Amino acid sequence: MVLAVKEINTFYGLSHILFGVSLEVRQSETVCILGRNGVGKTTTLRSIMGLAPPRSGSIKFKGEEIRGKQPFDIYRLGIGLVPEDRIIFPDLTVHENLEIAVKKGERRGSMEGWTIEKVQRLFPILKARDKQWGGTLSGGEQQMLTIARTLMGNPRLLLLDEPSEGLAPLVVKAIEEQILLLKKEGMTILLSEQNSNLALKISDRGYILEKGLVAWQGAVSELKGDPEIMKNYLGL
Ligand SMILES: Nc1ncnc2c1ncn2[C@@H]1O[C@H](COP(=O)(O)OP(=O)(O)OP(=O)(O)O)[C@@H](O)[C@H]1O
Ligand SMILES: [Mg+2]
Q1: Residue 154 and residue 174: Cα distance in Å, rounded?
Q2: Is the dihedral of CA 210, 14, 191, 23 positive or negative?
Q3: Domain topology for 3-234
Q4: Is the CB of 35 within 6 Å of ligand 1?
């Protein structure tokens, strides 16, 4: 088991957002968190990363309790979060954006260490844009750069928060193929999506959140065959 989240309760101030959320991600699995706007998908990923520390419950990463640890320590243990808002440095070139993410002398995980050349092979557009300022990239290119930078930290578990949000269908298709390549390499992925098309295509299993609770969980193949659930929880 790579990740085991058990009964976490997360608050923003006095607002109780997650109510006993539990989920698991196994080695080399792609798992999605689905649900409408505001149900707690981002909060779940931020809870795992230590950015919105849960008040109770347990989060084990490769068997080790990480609830209560600082985000940077969680990152060092091997979890990489690609946030909704695609953080890149607009005044650095694409190359510099990647360079600053290099962890010197560190290699871990099942995959070979990520290098700039290797992320450029996965995202050829980043090579074409190498000398351009980060701020000149399109939304899709920024998303790819953010994923690439996170990979440079050699994560064992990749958390992707709504990777397709706001992107044109062709760009979503490209990102879908890139995530599938990562999956093929054995990467373990937990992603959140409101628009479930992408998630249903690439995930093995899924969890549907409804107002901070896990309302459904199961294999994606099962979900696809159940229009009732899709309609009730996802509005499809
Ligand atoms: N920083 C914050 N302070 C207070 N409340 C917050 C904060 N961030 C999110 N919330 C609230 O927590 C709830 C869950 O938000 P969250 O962002 O986790 O939902 P989401 O499922 O990711 O939604 P979306 O699909 O819009 O990204 C919402 O009611 C939201 O208004
Ligand atoms: Mg969100």
Answers
A1: 22
A2: negative
A3: Rossmann fold (3.40.50)
A4: yes
Query: Cα(193)–Cα(190) distance, rounded to whole angstroms?
Result: 10
Q: Is the CB of 164 under 6 A from ligand 1?
A: no
- Is 43's C-beta closer than 6 angstroms to any atom of ligand 1? yes
What is the pLDDT tens value at each position of the chain, 236 positions in all? 999 999 999 999 999 999 999 999 999 999 999 999 999 999 999 999 999 999 999 999 999 999 999 999 999 999 999 999 888 999 999 999 999 887 655 554 445 689 999 999 999 999 999 999 999 999 999 999 999 999 999 999 999 999 999 999 999 999 999 999 999 999 999 999 987 789 999 999 999 999 999 999 999 999 988 888 888 888 77
Give the residue extent of every domain in the chain. Answer: 3-234
Closest Cα to atom 14, ligand 1: which residue?
40
- Entry pTM: 0.95
Q: Which of 19, 36, 39, 209 to mutate to test the pocket of ligand 1 (most atoms within 8 A of CB)?
A: 39
- 3-state DSSP call for residue 65? strand
DSSP for 92-127?
SBHHHHHHTT--TT---SSSPPP-HHHHHHH-HHHH
